[in-house]
Amino acid sequence: MVISVQHIRHATSILTINGKRILIDPMLSDIGELSPVPFTRNYRRNPLTPLPVPLYEFDDVDAILLTHRHFDHWDKKAISILNKHIPVICQPRDQASVQSAGFLKVISVNDSIEWEGIQIKRKEGPHAPGMTGKLLGRVSGFFLNTLVEGSIYIVSDCIITPAIEEVFQELEPDFAILNASEAEMIWGTVITMTREDIAHLARLSPKTKFLTVHLETINHCKLSRNELRKFLKEQQLENSVLVPEDGEVISF
C-alpha cells in the first residue's frame, strides 16, 4: 500500500492511507453557491471553480478530517449530503457544532489518537497574525503516521510559526499538504502561507515531499498555480513541491 492524495479543490482532498479513504475539509458547493469571503477586495461569489468529480465519489469515504469550520472547508452542501455515520475527526472546539449538524461519530483530538492503525497528532496554530488571527480563530493541522507507509502532515490554514517549524524539524514528515494561496483581507493581512513560506519549509525539511493546495478557488486567494510554479522553478524546488490540478491523484 502507498499513501495517495486526490486533490479535489481548494482545501478538499481525499487522502488514502493505511487502506482508509479520508476526506479532508469538504467544500462541495457548485460554482457561485457561496458568498464572497467578507472583508476582501472583490465580491466574486464562491467557489470559483467546479467540483472535478461527481458527488457520489464521497459516498464511500471512511472518515472526514476537519481542520476548522470556515465555510470554505466545511460548507452547507457537505453537511447536508455526507453520510452522518461517517466518523468526523476534528479539533475539540468544533466537536459540539459537528454533533449538532447530525454527525453521529465525532472524534475530538486533544493531543493524539490512534484510529484504524493510524497515529494522528493534532498541531494547533493561528490562521493569521495579530488581531486578524483572533478574529479568525485557531485552526488545527494533523500529523498522520503509519509504520509501513510513512507520515503526512496536513498543515491546514495555519500560518508559519516556530511551532510549525518544530513539527517539520522534529517529526520529519514524509509528505505535507500546505494551504499556501496568499489569501488576503481588505486591510492587507495575509491569512495563509506565502510562496516564500513554502520555500522556507522545503529547505527546512528537505526530506519532505510537499503538495501545495488552496489555490484559485476562493475569491481572496491571490496566488495562481502558474505564478507558484514559476517561483518554484526559480528557486529550484519544482521536484520537492508539487502543485496539483483539481481532481489530480498524487501517489507517493
Distance between the termini: 10 Å
**CATH architecture descriptor text:** 4-Layer Sandwich
Which residues sit in consecutive blocks of at least 5 with pLDDT less than 50?
none
Secondary-structure element order, N to C: EEEEHEHEEEHEEHEHEHEE
How much of the sequence lies in strands comes to 25-35%
Radius of gyration: 17 Å
- The number of E-state strands comes to 14
> Which strand order does the major sheet show?
6-5-4-3-2-1-14
CATH homologous group name? Ribonuclease Z/Hydroxyacylglutathione hydrolase-like
Class per helix and strand makeup: alpha/beta
Overall mean confidence score, pLDDT = 97
Number of helices: 6
CATH topology: Metallo-beta-lactamase, Chain A
Q: Strand count, sense and closure of the main sheet?
A: 7 strands, mixed
Estimate percent helicity. 10-25%
Give the tally of structural domains: 1
Overall shape: it is: globular
CATH C-level class is Alpha Beta
Write the SSE topology.
Blueprint: E1 4-9, E2 12-17, E3 20-24, E4 63-65, H1 76-81, E5 88-90, H2 95-100, E6 106-108, E7 112-115, E8 118-126, H3 130-136, E9 138-146, E10 150-156, H4 162-171, E11 175-179, H5 195-204, E12 209-213, H6 225-234, E13 241-242, E14 249-251
Parallel strand pairs: 3-4, 4-5, 5-6, 10-11, 11-12, 12-13
Antiparallel strand pairs: 1-2, 1-14, 2-3, 7-8, 8-9, 9-10
